[in-house]
């Protein structure tokens, strides 16, 4: 009905506005979900432990469970992100596209209805114009007829005047009849168009708008359901995350954590024996070693560190400066080797057949880093550290070996198919991997030897007190006869100007006496018997 056109226009526009409001509502909901997920991820990242120390702590069930909770919470945050993503793509994007189509369809229907109405109004205006013309012409015809009758009844009128009046009246009447026929035709046409407009076109337009609006309502109702269904789909995974958090709490075993701590840190030391009674009533003089009893415990705990200091220094004679109440001890470092000065307060010096034993109390010692063979650790801890180091080296060796095999295969392919590449271009990589393999094998043998010694019962802490102190007398460097551990070839010339180093020339064959310890230097023996340190990067190992 045309009188309800404006109502339908407003109603359909209101429906489109509702769809648009719902889209904005869902977008804001997705932003809340995304911010919530982002905050959860930041929270888990903040409390998540990384690094070697944290990995050690995560061996305990209560620490590991907390990490599991953080992992589950991170997965939970991922599900919240998934909800936001699905809402955005499944509701906002789809409804926005649907809304654009509805707006275009509504505009088309309203435009067609408007055109039909304008066509009917134009036809009605033409009908009114025809009607007015007919009325005017009919009035003129009646006037002409009355004038002809009047002229005919006038006795003074001549016959030509009467004939002329009759002809004029007849013409007017004929014109009026034509206008009457035109008006009747226009009226019939308008009535037909009006019936078409009200009974066919307008109902069709309104039915299309009704179908469009109902389709909008159905799609909007589907969007309402999606709002819930999207979250329902992830609820099983969210439930698993929450169950995982509960399971993490159930995995905590306080007894196991306690036993793990004990196993991890047990030292392997024997329990100390009883302290013997020293009877001074019979005139027994105190043992001169008693002066050192106060430092015995400290030095025993640090004995492995002292042995590490001793192993880090190459045996050489140097100067001692003895002052009143103070003994200053200094060494000249070997180039590229670890070196530290030691300054200690002197307490007593005891002369033994072949060495000086220095005993100190209230001493400030700048201790070196832990020994490479972990001899500074208790026996059990040393075994564990050595085994872990061997495992790491073995993994790296296997990785390097695989890399070397791959390079060899690639070189074979290049040799058979030169168009694929130049075999000589792989030589630097093959040489580098070969050197790495040799170095890793040497390190593996070294650590396996140390582990064998540790497993054989050799305990560095079982030595006597004299062997726990630092010695003030050093032998000349490289006095012991050693067997070369490998061969190498000099690839650059090196001038050994510093003490402890030797000069080499490019292409010279050398025997490796001591491998690189990670400081960039190695000890080699020349063919003329000269021995010393050179940079590891100046030579190439020869298999």
TrEMBL record:
**Which InterPro entries does this entry report, sorted A to Z?**
AH/BAR_dom_sf (IPR027267), F_BAR_dom (IPR031160), FCH_dom (IPR001060), HR1_CIP4_FNBP1L (IPR057871), HR1_rho-bd (IPR011072), HR1_TOCA (IPR057870), SH3-like_dom_sf (IPR036028), SH3_domain (IPR001452)
**Keyword Nucleus attached:** no
Compositional bias, Basic and acidic residues, is annotated for 138-153
Source taxon at top rank: Eukaryota
Keywords carried by this UniProt record: Cell membrane, Coiled coil, Cytoplasm, Cytoskeleton, Endocytosis, Lipid-binding, Lysosome, Membrane, SH3 domain
Keyword Membrane included in the entry's annotation? yes
- The F-BAR domain sits at 1-257
Q: Name one Pfam family in it.
A: SH3_1
- The name under which this protein is listed is Cdc42-interacting protein 4 homolog
């Amino acid at each position: 009905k045309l009188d309800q056109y404006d109502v339908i226009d407003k109603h359909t526009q209101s429906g489109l506005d509702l769809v648009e409001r719902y889209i904005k509502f869902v977008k804001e909901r997705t932003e809340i979900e995304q911010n919530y997920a982002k905050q959860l991820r930041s929270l888990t990242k903040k409390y998540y432990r990384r690094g070697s120390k944290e990995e050690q702590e995560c061996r305990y069930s209560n620490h590991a469970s907390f990490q599991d909770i953080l992992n589950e919470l991170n997965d939970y945050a991922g599900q919240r992100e998934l909800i936001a993503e699905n809402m955005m793509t499944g509701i906002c994007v789809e409804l926005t596209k649907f809304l654009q189509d509805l707006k275009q369809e509504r505009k088309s229907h309203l435009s067609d209805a408007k055109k039909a109405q304008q066509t009917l109004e134009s036809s009605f205006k033409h009908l009114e114009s025809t009607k007015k013309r007919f009325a005017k012409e009919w009035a003129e015809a009646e006037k002409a007829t009355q004038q002809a009758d009047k002229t005919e009844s006038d006795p003074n009128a001549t016959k030509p005047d009467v004939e002329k009046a009759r002809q004029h009246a007849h013409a007017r009447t004929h014109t009026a009849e034509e206008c009457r026929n035109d008006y009747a035709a226009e009226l019939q046409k308008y009535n037909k168009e009006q019936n078409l407009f009200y009974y066919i076109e307008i109902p069709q337009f309104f039915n299309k708008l009704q179908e469009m609006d109902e389709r909008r309502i159905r799609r909007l109702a589907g969007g309402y359901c999606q709002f819930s269904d999207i979250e329902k789909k992830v609820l099983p995974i969210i439930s698993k995350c929450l169950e995982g958090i509960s399971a993490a709490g159930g995995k905590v075993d306080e007894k196991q954590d306690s036993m793990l701590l004990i196993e991890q840190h047990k030292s392997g030391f024997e329990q100390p024996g009883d302290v013997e009674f020293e009877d001074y009533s019979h005139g027994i003089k105190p043992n001169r070693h008693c002066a050192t009893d106060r430092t015995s415990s400290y030095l025993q705990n640090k004995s492995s560190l002292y042995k590490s200091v001793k192993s880090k220094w190459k045996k050489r004679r140097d100067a001692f400066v003895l002052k009143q109440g103070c003994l200053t001890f200094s060494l000249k470092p070997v180039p590229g080797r670890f070196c530290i000065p030691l300054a200690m307060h002197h307490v007593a010096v005891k002369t033994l057949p072949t060495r000086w034993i220095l005993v100190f109390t209230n001493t400030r010692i700048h201790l070196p880093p832990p020994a490479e063979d972990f001899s500074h650790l208790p026996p059990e801890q040393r075994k564990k550290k050595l085994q872990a180091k061997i495992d790491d080296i073995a993994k790296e060796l296997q990785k390097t070996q695989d890399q070397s095999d791959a390079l060899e295969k690639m070189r074979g392919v290049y040799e058979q198919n030169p168009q694929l590449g130049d075999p000589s271009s792989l030589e630097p990589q093959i040489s580098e991997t070969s050197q790495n393999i040799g170095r890793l094998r040497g390190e593996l043998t070294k650590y396996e030897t140390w582990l064998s010694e540790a497993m054989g019962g050799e305990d560095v802490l079982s030595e006597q007190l004299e062997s726990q102190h630092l010695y003030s007398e050093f032998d000349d460097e490289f006095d012991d006869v050693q067997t070369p551990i490998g061969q190498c070839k000099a690839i650059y010339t090196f001038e050994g100007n510093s003490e402890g180093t030797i000069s080499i020339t490019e292409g010279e064959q050398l025997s490796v006496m001591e491998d690189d310890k990670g400081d960039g230097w190695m000890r080699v023996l020349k063919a003329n018997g000269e021995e010393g340190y050179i940079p590891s990067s100046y030579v190439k190992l020869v298999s």
